[in-house]
Amino acid sequence: MLKDIVSKQKELFIPGAHTELRSEKIRTRRVSSVMGNLMGNGRSEEEGVCARVYKDGVYGFSSMAEISDDAAKSVLKAASENAMFLDTHAGRNQGPLPPINPTEPLISQGEDIPETEQKYYIDYVKEVDNYISKTYPNLSSRTVVAMEETFEKHLVTSDGVDANRIIPRSYVYTFMTSETKDGMPVELFEAFGGENIFAKNFKSIDDIKERIDRLYERLMQKREGVYAVAGEKTVILDGMMTGMLAHEAVGHTVEADIVRNGSVALHNLGKQVASELVSLTDFAHTAFGERAPLPVFADDEGTPGIDCPLIKDGILVGYMNSRETAEIFNMQPTGNARAFAPSDEPLIRMRNTAVHPGKDKLEDMIASIDDGYYLISSTNGEADITGEFMFGVDMGYEIKNGKLGKALLDTTVSGIAFDMLKTVDMVSDKISWSSSGYCGKKQPMPVGMGGPALRCKITIGGR
Fold first, then answer.
1. How many whole angstroms separate alpha carbon 127 and alpha carbon 174?
2. CA nearest neighbour of 323 among 300, 340, 353, 339
């Protein structure tokens, strides 16, 4: 646990100005292997302390790459002076932020993280690579990456919040490459893991062998794959694709800072933006009765994490907010203001954004389509504030007469989120989550995203 150098500074907080003082340490471990050769072996740590002070509509911020009493006093003094200076010249006179009045001002998340020898990561990567090379020798390339990332944060605020948070996550990324009969390379990858340290998530390679085997089987099917026929098609987006849509094409448009800049959600609050079968929530720490992939019990403004409903039965019902934008939009702050590094200010960010499951069985959804596609996973995705999106698809299948056909070669899907979601007419009863990547809004941020399979109409690319 971080040494407490922030609690004792409360007496230096400026009366009448909202103040946040945060110390933070980020620990990263990463090992990578390409074709059995160790190509990366890294350990890094970053630490620091920062302060942010709000005064009548402006923020002063300061940070220092050091955790000490003197550093805490220094950044607090600089942030306070910055806030007073900006207030003098900006003259916004917006008044103070509404107090949180937390019912549980002491928030503790996670346990102390034991140190794991670097050899553990190296040996695990070697074991995975050895299994792949011996079991599937016909691959043209294989890459295995082991990663662990841990955030330790201690935050105190002028509202009386005192939050200690330890947030670990770890993954094994497996990449496989083969070639079509024409010599064109085809690749698939999958990330295994989630919340917790590497040594707890990966005790034995037996835990992931089945998924490695499935990845190889799909790659062999893709190797014999066909190109999709371009145009608007009836498709089934599997849970991972639904999660990408929920995050990129919808989630960003309902972040309140982006709403203020004119996103499509600005004039759609209270209106139908999707089929009545679609509900979407940004979950804080618990989703559908289980712990969310990357739980957030308090954000970096000290706001306790609660769920943020975004779409309910097809109606846009809310935005994700910071404390400041929650006051502007007359909404409740839900704990969405998050900062990555100690040098970063909190921004409105997603946590675990997912479409709710429905009542349909996936096999019935497939059987209902005469000519369409089942799209399983995405390589990347992007969207703008209008909700217009384009995602790469690296794994999918034809659907012919209600049955799965040949695998697809890489393609794309595109559309406008709120238009496409209105075409959803079946929603599966099982949800899939992904949490291995980062959201890149000005600063990286680990996020979870997920959803059930959706039957809808979408524009798919061809050859």
1. 12
2. 300
What does each C-alpha distance from 353 to 82, 152, 184, 195 come to in angstroms?
Answer: 35, 23, 36, 16
- Between CA 350 and CA 435 the distance in angstroms is 12
Alpha-carbon distance 143 to 154, whole Å?
A: 36
Contact assessment for residue 337 and residue 300, using Cβ atoms and an 8 Å cutoff: yes
**Measuring CA to CA, how many Å separate 322 from each of 13, 64, 113, 255, 264?**
21, 24, 29, 9, 19
Asked if residue 423 lies in contact with residue 457, where contact means CB atoms within 8 angstroms, the answer is yes
Residues 88 and 111 sit within 8 Å (Cβ to Cβ):
no
How distant, in Å, are the alpha carbons of 107, 282, 284, 334, 360 from that of 304? 8, 14, 9, 7, 34
Residues of the chain with pLDDT under 50: none
Which residues fall within 8 angstroms of residue 89, CB to CB, at 6 or more apart?
none
Distances (CA, A) of 200 to 45, 121, 193, 290, 337: 21, 12, 10, 19, 29
User: Looking at residue 94, what is its pLDDT?
Assistant: 79
* C-alpha–C-alpha distance, residues 108 and 373, integer Å: 46
Please state the pTM of the whole predicted model: 0.95
Question: If 0-12 CB within 10 Å is exposed, 13-18 middle and 19+ buried, where does residue 204 land?
Answer: exposed
Q: CB of 389 within 8 A of CB of 417?
A: yes
CA distances to 158, 171, 176, 203, 291 from 190, rounded to whole Å, are: 44, 10, 9, 18, 22
Kindly state the helix (H) or strand (E) to which residue 201 belongs, with its residue range: helix 198-201
Q: How far is CA 88 from CA 9, 59, 93, 355, in A?
A: 25, 12, 10, 45
Angle at 359 between CA 273 and CA 367, to 5 degrees: 95
CA 344 to each of CA 92, 138, 186: distance values in angstroms, whole numbers, following the listed order: 24, 46, 38
Q: What is the pLDDT of residue 103?
A: 60
Tokens 């917006």 belong to residue: 94
